[in-house]
Structure formats: C-alpha cells, structure tokens
Amino acid sequence: MQLTNDEILALDRQHVWHPYSSFLNPSPTYAVASASGVTLTLADGRTLIDGMSSWWSVLHGYNHPRLNAALRNQSEAMSHVMFGGLTHEPAVSLCQQLVRLSPPGLNKVFLSDSGSVSVEVAMKMALQFWHSQGRPEKHRFVALTNGYHGDTFGAMSVCDPVTGMHHLFSRNLQQQYFATRPSSRFDAPFDESDLASIRELLATHSDIAAVILEPIVQGAGGMWMYSPEYLKAVRELCDQHQVLLIADEIATGFGRTGKLFACEHAGISPDILCLGKTLTGGYMTLAATLCNDQVSDGICRGEAGVFMHGPTFMGNPLACAVAGESIRLLLEGNWQERIGTIEAQLRRELEPCRELDRVVDVRVLGGIGVVELDQAPDMQTLQPAFVEAGIWVRPFGRLVYIMPPYVASESEISALTGGIYSVVSAL
Length: 427
Ligand code: PMP
What we know:
Layout: H1 5-15, E1 32-36, E2 39-42, E3 47-50, H2 53-56, H3 65-77, H4 89-101, E4 106-112, H5 115-132, E5 140-144, H6 153-157, E6 177-179, H7 196-204, E7 208-213, E8 217-218, E9 224-225, H8 228-240, E10 244-248, E11 272-275, E12 287-292, H9 293-301, H10 317-332, H11 335-350, E13 359-365, E14 368-373, H12 379-388, E15 391-392, E16 399-402, H13 410-425
Parallel strand pairs: 3-15, 5-6, 5-7, 7-10, 10-11
Antiparallel strand pairs: 1-2, 2-3, 4-12, 8-9, 11-12, 13-14, 14-16
Helix pairs in contact: 3-10, 4-10, 5-9, 11-13
The structure holds 4'-deoxy-4'-aminopyridoxal-5'-phosphate (PMP).
4'-deoxy-4'-aminopyridoxal-5'-phosphate binds near residues 119, 248 and 250.
C-alpha cells in the first residue's frame, strides 16, 4: 500500500500520539519517506539537513551500508531469542566492547530496550545493592535540578520536578532529593559554592542510595554544560558519604561531548552507567546499564540472590549486532577529530547569534550547539520556518539546539547554523 503525503499526515493526525503532543493542537508534523547520510527526504519531495540526529542517536548518518549489512546479516541468522538461559555472540561481543571502552571498573552489563528502562535498572541496582549491605533504609536518590532521565516512573521521580515535565504525576512519584545544578560553565573557572547544595544533602540524610546525574551536559532539562570539577567533587562526596554514583550517559555517550564518555572530562568512573540512544548508531532501540563488581557482587550475595529485572527483548540480537558494528565503525574512524572540527565550526558560526535580540546565551561543547532564547517561541511558526530553510531543527522550550551526525560535512553544518541564524533573527 502506498499512501500519499496528505494521506499519511491525515492518518497521523487522527491516530498517532507523538512525544509530548496533543491531538487538539498538534505541532507541525512532516512525513519522512527516506533518510540517508545527513539528509531526510520528506514524502512531499523536499529534503532537510538533519541537525537532531534523531534526538542524539544517529552517529554515522542514516542508511549506512555497514550498519545495514550488520542488520541484514544478523536477521538472516537469528532475529530474536529470549535471553534467559540462552545467550549469543552479538550480545556477548557487544558487552565485551562496552566493558573495554567505558570508564574503568564497570565490568557487568545489563541490556535493556530503552534509555528510561536503563535508568530504572540503574535505580533498582542501587536499591538492591544497599539492601544486600543490610542498609535498606538507603532508598532515596539525589538528582540535580534541570536534570532529565526519562519518562517511566522511577526515571520521572529523578527528573527536575519543574522542568522535567512530570509534575502532573507527582502524587505517584517517590519523593527524591534535588541538589541545585552547578552554575559553573564547562570552560569557566569552577565556583566552589556550586557544591553547597549537594554537600548539604549528602551530609544531612542517611537514606540516600545514589546520586544520579547527567555528566557534563544536562540535556532535555536545559542543555546546560557544566564544569568537570563539579563532577569530580560529586564523585568524592559520594565516596565520603557511602553513596553510589549513577551516570546517565544516554545522551552524552559515544563521543558527543568530545570524549568517548562525558565522565572522562572529569577522569571519574561512576558505580553505575546508563547508555542508550547512540548505542546502535540510531538504528534500533537498545540500552545498557553497566555496574562495577562491588555493586554486582553485593546484589548477587544479597537476599534475593539475583538481580530482579528481565525485559523480554533484552539482548535482542539485531540490536546488539548493529550496536557492535556501530562501535567498530566509530573506533575505526576519526571521530575525535571530526567532533573537534564540528565543535570549532559550531563555535565560529553560532557565536554571531549572541547579537540577536531574542538570544540570551550561546553554548557549544563537542558536537552540540545551543542557542538559548529569552522565551519559548511559537512552534507553529518556528518549525515551518526551519523546514523552509531546508533544515531539521526541533526547538524545545526556549532552546534551539543541534547535535548533527558526526559525518555531517562543513557545508551541511553551515546550512544548519546559517538557517538557525536567519530563522532566529526573524523572530
Ligand atoms: N536520560 C537522558 C539523559 C535522556 O536524554 C533520555 C532521552 N531523552 C533518557 C534518559 C530516556 O531515554 P529513552 O527516551 O530512550 O527512554
């Protein structure tokens, strides 16, 4: 069956929920017919240069021959088997790669199917760990204001109660502690007073299981890039107060910030690490939660004797095979140099936006560029303006931001930054 562009959009408006959307006031939506490299081809024939990497996930561009082949070959061998009692090469090879690449000490990998679930898994690991240590009272989490960790219930409880979009569910969410996010910028001197809030929380409460944070870049909650010194100090505070550290690198993992993992900016290892999005190069839904031996030993020696989680699609061979190939592709290439070049270009070309009336800040780190506006613009006019400019940029609240696939060329990046400048200057 071949639907026309209008038919796709009409059916979409009738039946299909989009993220954070309303059927009564739908935001402008475009049907994509195909995607290749950094280009999305719409069903109406227009093409757009993609600045969003499908929300951080596409690394090597769309329709990559090596990733296509990995998926095709794996589908011919085995598309899925339930993991329990059975295992397979795509999963074990991937887990070996993850252990080798991730910050030191993270030796055990729990595979799941989405970023939010990997956060649930991380939280459950922390709770089971403290239970196993005879400290079941350590059952609450410290998260940062402006943090975002996903849309499931545990993950929602550690999102910023205001910017995290989940206040509607607050009655059903476990109450957590929130430390004020650091105000020291990534490349500015560190202000010690940034630590006051988290230091006080950790010193005052004995029921804290773990601190959970997005290292270096807070994503959906504000696109804020903070000082590595903060992260380093939080690691020390966690050790001092017998609290685990969970790093949510679902958005920052696999090079986006200029290091393979954002924790490397501070030279720290978390006790538990969440990965997702980019893990499969944006091809399949897959996430991973890694933990160190202390956590896994504790859990396995504890009352339950097992870790209590087991999603049906964990370790899906298609997803694992494409993830393995995506990581090989990344490591074989010159990703660090590419990200460095993209970073320099984003700095050069987004900086002029600072002079625009509506712009209050411009921030760049690695392959991420952010233009912060004074207030949220009207998406009904803004989104079509970006599409008219031939680029796919999806603003969120006051933030106009891009994180293009690493393979984006200089001219593709210029199209994105030039489009942002002209659209924002017309606001
Ligand atoms: N943590 C972070 C830092 C994220 O950016 C996201 C996704 N935006 C999630 C968790 C949730 O991941 P998913 O959408 O795959 O559930």
